[in-house]
């Protein structure tokens, strides 16, 4: 089982719709969760972080966390063509020595069409 | 001002050669990382240094050797390059290796092509 799993997509949504991106993780001890956006040929850019169960909203983005189900999601409201990118789910896991490291899912490609 | 900068941006080289990638961050972070992103876009951690000390060393061929002369710099040297080493290599940094709430800041990446 992969540590962080995402549907690779592509997820195609019309402009103005809500895009829903999902992620599951295997390490129950994980404490922090992140969503990165990566445009083609560019570096990953942090767009959301969440640590507590429930929802966290930032502009058009809402991150949702359910630790019992080991599930993280990202909602993008009023999707725009400029949101078309690969969205990477990342989970911070603790390893030996107490160090944390960020483990990424394979990413979901989102395509927003006019 | 670029927060995490890598050089070179592109690197094309022949099999068997040795090459280096350099990374510098001006965020004042203590911890730096190397990630490899393969053709399927999967981003995988390779190494981490905290204040010049190697703290994470994933299962990576020993042809890859990181070096950190100070906490603001992390270099990656690759010996005897193979076709399978072709990928995009990202440097990243974070305030510390123990913190929970912070994500990593990534550099712009180095696209390595081995021919």
Number of alpha- plus pi-helical segments of chain A: 0
Which structural category do the helix and sheet elements of chain A fall into?
A: mainly beta
Radius of gyration of chain A: 14 Å
Distance between the termini of chain A: 37 Å
Radius of gyration of chain B: 13 Å
Uncertain stretches of chain A = none
Major sheet details of chain B: 7 strands, mixed
Oligomer: heterodimer
Helix content of chain A: under 10%
| Nearest-integer average pLDDT of chain A | 94
In short:
The complex is a heterodimer of chains A (114) and B (115). Chain A is mainly beta.
Could you characterize what this model shows?
The complex is a heterodimer of chains A (114) and B (115). Chain A has strands at residues 4-6, 11-14, 19-25, 32-38, 45-50, 54-58, 61-66, 71-76, 85-94, 100-104, 108-113. Chain A is mainly β and 114 residues long. In chain A, the strands form 2 sheets. In chain A, strands 2, 4, 5, 9, 10 and 11 form a 6-stranded mixed β-sheet that branches. In chain A, strands 1-3-8-7-6 form a 5-stranded antiparallel β-sheet, with no helix packed on it. Chain A is globular and about 50 Å long. The relative contact order of chain A is 0.34. Chain B is mainly β and 115 residues long. Chain B is 0% helix and 55% strand. In chain B, strands 2, 4, 5, 6, 9, 10 and 11 form a 7-stranded mixed β-sheet that branches. Chain B is globular. The mean pLDDT of chain B is 94. The interface between A and B is medium-sized, with 27 and 25 residues.
């Amino acid at each position: 089982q992969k540590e962080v799993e995402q549907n690779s997509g592509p997820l195609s949504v019309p402009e103005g719709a809500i895009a829903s991106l999902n992620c599951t993780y295997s390490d129950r001890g994980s404490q922090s969760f992140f969503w990165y956006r990566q445009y083609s040929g560019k570096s990953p850019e942090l767009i959301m972080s969440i640590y507590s169960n429930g929802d966290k909203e930032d502009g058009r983005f809402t991150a949702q966390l359910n630790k019992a189900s080991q599930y993280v999601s990202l909602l993008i409201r009023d999707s725009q063509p400029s949101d078309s990118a690969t969205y990477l789910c990342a989970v911070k896991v603790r390893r030996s020595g107490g160090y944390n490291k960020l483990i990424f899912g394979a990413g979901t490609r989102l395509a927003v069409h006019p | 001002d670029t927060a995490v900068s890598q050089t070179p941006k592109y690197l094309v080289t022949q099999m068997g050669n040795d090459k280096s990638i350099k990374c510098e961050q001006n965020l004042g972070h203590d911890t730096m990382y190397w990630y490899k992103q393969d053709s399927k876009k999967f981003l995988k951690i390779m190494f981490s240094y905290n204040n010049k000390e190697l703290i994470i060393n994933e299962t990576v061929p020993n042809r890859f050797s990181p070096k950190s002369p100070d906490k603001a710099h992390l270099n990656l040297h690759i010996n005897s390059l193979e076709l399978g080493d072709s990928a995009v290599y990202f440097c990243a940094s974070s305030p510390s290796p123990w913190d929970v709430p912070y994500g990593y800041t990534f550099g712009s990446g180095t696209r390595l092509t081995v021919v």
